[in-house]
Amino acid sequence: KIIIFLGPPGAGKGTQAKFLEKDYGFIQISTGDILREAVKKGTELGKLAKKYMDEGKLVPDDVIVGIIEEKLEELKDKNIILDGFPRTIPQAEALDEMLKKKNKEVDAVILFDISDEEVIRRLSGRRIDPKTGNVYHIEFNPPPEGLEVIQREDDKEEVIRKRLEVYHNQTEPLIEYYKKQNKLLKVDTSKPVEEVYNQIKNMLKL
Ligand code: AP5
Ligand code: ZN
Question: What is the ipTM of this complex?
Answer without folding.
Answer: 0.98
